[in-house]
Structure formats: structure tokens, C-alpha cells
């Protein structure tokens, strides 16, 4: 069994209900259902079968809730779970304080759903305060760390928060930048956050797999490859925001694609047997989908097919964003409940459904096919919930606290 060293620093004299014993538990219990509700509603709206009359700007609602509604929950669950693991002396946020954070997330979702009826400044405060408070809870150990090993994650989360503030400033017309373009800008930093998390997940899970197979190799996710990929994505995001139709975006998008694709070089350690792992195949698929997204966007700029860009972006949203969330939820549900990390058929099926749904969304224009793709995509998160909710509602199998 994998054991997490940080559980020795669990808060003393406290016995919270199991769903509040660690941040990932309560968020991963509820988040899959919210994801399913969000995407299925949007699928019916886009396909013309449903009209949400209480929302004027339904497209902005869909994009914001997909990125920041889902993304903020993922950030809270991940960073509040990871900090005590990154920094062994840190105590996890649990019990009532964790419940308050979760309630903040719920209030943010309700307020944005009814943004036409609630004062915009209240909506902005409820949504932005969640990430701001989470950053406040965790920032000290990141900057006190002499090695600064994980500071890039915090910097990326702070950037995502600042872009969220920009979005609301734009939405209220306090700054003259299109709010839709700001949401597209934020997508790039969610991709960067995924790469930062992916590097750490790769290091832990692949080396664990090598150890189980008695392979005397060490997997190293080379930092310089990830840094190059992140640098090119930042350039692409910046040019896209200020020069959205500049021809240079063709070559910048291609650079992003190949920089991300180069991450696959880390996996070639002369041991073909690791490619038989469902987890490795899923992680590789995530890299391929993200790379394909930027390549397709570059191709659209090259051919001046600007109307196709919104389709190709779904490689990054439906594909990379969705698959990253799904895989992190699965991995955390094993490792942080004291279980051995073994990606089973049911978990791999969910990953395949996300990939298949992405292909349907990108390459088929039919509204009915789009609705089918949303149902297929949502099915992956229902599989997760049905398969792993019991893990989240039971104590760790190794009897450690949390």
C-alpha cells in the first residue's frame, strides 16, 4: 500500500465526519454531479431542446461555469489536499473550515446561475473570494520553501484568480476588454496548471508502477520540457488576447503543439511494458489531446478558417481539461484513501468516453451529435461517482487519519 507521510501531522483532538476529513472527499463527492448537470443542460440548450429563460448570456454562463465553476472546485480540492503532502509540517484544512470553503463554492455557483437577478458585485465577490481565500490559506509554505519546488503551482493559481477578477471587471464594463476573450485567455493558464500537476502525477505514479514491476529504472519528468511548453502557451495566450487574428498565432500554436508533444519523450525508458498500463495510456492520451488542440488551432489560423477555432478549442476544453480532471479524481481517490493505485477497466472506460466525446464534438457539426457527445462525456463522471463514492465515504483502508 502507498502511504502518505503527511498524515502524521493531522490535526489533534479533532474527529470530523469522513466527508470533511480531507478536501478532496467533499469536493469529489459532489463535483461529478455538478459537472454532469452543467454539461447536460448545455447540451440540451445548444441542441435546441431546452431554453433557460432566466439567463440572457447563456454562452458566457456555459464557458465560465465549465472553467471557473468546475475549475475552482478542482483547485480547492487539489491544493488543499496537496499542500500537506508537499510540505510535511503543514496541517490539512478539515472539518468546519473545509465546510465553509465548500459552501463558498456552492454560493458562487448559485449566484452565477442567477447573475441576471443578483447584483453583479455580489456575484463577483462570491466567486472571486473562494480562490482568494484558498490562496491565503496555503501561500506561506510555498514561499517559505527554500527549494521553491512547487511555487509555480501557486503562481499559476494566483494568475487564474487575477484573470477571474479581470473577467468580472470586463463583465461590468469597468475595463474595455471582451469578457469572452478573457475566458479564452484563462483557458491557457488552466492548461499550464494541468501541465504542472501532470508533471508531479507522472513522477509519483510512473515510478510507483516501475517499482511494482521490479523495473530498475527511474522515471524523470524533465522540467525543461515542461518549462518550454508552458512558455509557448503563455506567449500564445498573450498574443491571442491582444492580437486575436494575428497570423503569427499560426506558428505560436504549432510551437505549443510540438513543445507539449515533446513531453512524451520522458516515457521512453526502454521498458515497453509500462505502456500496458491503463494509467500510462491515459496520461499519454492527455498529452496527445492537448498537443492536437494547439496544432488544430494553428492549422485553422494557417488556412484562415477562423470559424473553426471554436470547434478545435474543444480539444483543450472537452478533451484535455475534462480528462485531466477525471484522471486526478481517480488517482486521488485511490492514493489518498490508502489504496494501491490500480487503474481498472471501469476507470479506463471513463477516459475513453471523454476522448470519444471530444472527437464527436470537434468533427461533427450536427446538433444531435453534439447532444450525444455531451451525454457520452458526462457518462465518464457518472462512472467515477458510482465507482469511487464509496471510497470517499469510508475511512482510509490503512487506518491513517484523513
UniProtKB/TrEMBL annotation:
Coiled coil stretches, renumbered: none
Pfam assignment, any one: NnrS
Annotated transmembrane regions: 20-46, 66-86, 98-115, 121-139, 151-170, 182-202, 223-243, 249-269, 278-301, 313-335, 347-364, 370-393
Source organism superkingdom: Bacteria
InterPro entries from the UniProt entry: NnrS
Keywords assigned: Membrane, Transmembrane, Transmembrane helix
Keyword Transmembrane: yes
Protein's UniProt name: Nitrite reductase
Lineage, top ranks: Bacteria, Pseudomonadati, Campylobacterota, Epsilonproteobacteria, Campylobacterales
